[in-house]
Specification:
It is built from no helices and 20 strands. With 171 residues, the chain is an all-beta fold. The strands form three sheets. Strands 1, 3, 6, 9, 10, 13, 14, 17, 18 and 20 form a ten-stranded parallel β-sheet that branches. Strands 2-5-8-12-16-19 form a six-stranded parallel β-sheet, with no helix packed on it.
Length: 171
C-alpha cells in the first residue's frame, strides 16, 4: 500500500499536489491512499491529455483544488483529468473544489469510466459536487457502472453535472 499525503502545489497554474503527469503518459495507481493534498487544479491528482490513467483500489480523501473561484484553475478536488480515465473500486470522499468537480473534474474530449466505486461527501462551489463533465464541443463519454454517488454538494449537480454536448451512461 502507498500513502501520498499532505502535498501542496502553490503556483497559480500548478496541478496535482500529490502527483501529476504530462500529456501522453500512461499511469496506473493501485492499492493507494491519496489524502490531504491541495493544488490549484487536481488537488489529489492531475492527468494530462492522451495517456490512460487507470486507478484500482485507491482512496482519494480530503484533497482540495484551491484555485481562486471562478478560475478554471480550481477544478477537481480529488482528480482533474483531460485524458482517458478508468476508476475501478475507488473511493472518493470529502474532497473539495472551489469551482467544478468536488471529487472529479473531466475536461475536454475524453472518457471517464467508473466501476464499483463510491463517490461520497464531496463539495464543489459550482458545478458537480461529485463529478463535473465539461462541455468541450467534442465527445465526452462518462460510463458509471455498479457505483454509488451520494451526499455530494454542488450547484447545479450535487452528484453529477454533465454539460450540454457531453454524454453520460449509467449502467
Amino acid at each position: 500500500n502507498h500513502h501520498i499525503t499532505r502535498g501542496t502545489a502553490t503556483v497559480k497554474l500548478a496541478a496535482g499536489a500529490a502527483m501529476a503527469d504530462s500529456n501522453g503518459a500512461d499511469v496506473s495507481i493501485e492499492y493507494s491512499w491519496i489524502m490531504g493534498n491541495s493544488a490549484p487544479r487536481g488537488g489529489g491528482y492531475a492527468h494530462g491529455a492522451h495517456g490512460l490513467l487507470h486507478v484500482y483500489y485507491a482512496i482519494f480523501l480530503g484533497n482540495q483544488a484551491t484555485g481562486v473561484y471562478p478560475s478554471a484553475y480550481s477544478d477537481g478536488g480529488g482528480l482533474w483529468t483531460e485524458g482517458p480515465t478508468n476508476l475501478d473500486k475507488v473511493t472518493m470522499q470529502a474532497n473539495t473544489s472551489y469551482n467544478y468537480g468536488g471529487a472529479v473534474a473531466v475536461q475536454t474530449n475524453t472518457s471517464l469510466d467508473i466501476t464499483q466505486s463510491n463517490i461520497t461527501a464531496n463539495t464543489a462551489n459550482s458545478l458537480g459536487g461529485g463529478i463535473s463533465v465539461a462541455d468541450s464541443g467534442a465527445i465526452d463519454v462518462t460510463n458509471i457502472e455498479s457505483s454509488s454517488i451520494g451526499y455530494n454538494t454542488g450547484d447545479p449537480g450535487g452528484g453529477i453535472y454533465v454539460a450540454s454536448g457531453a454524454r453520460l451512461h449509467l449502467l
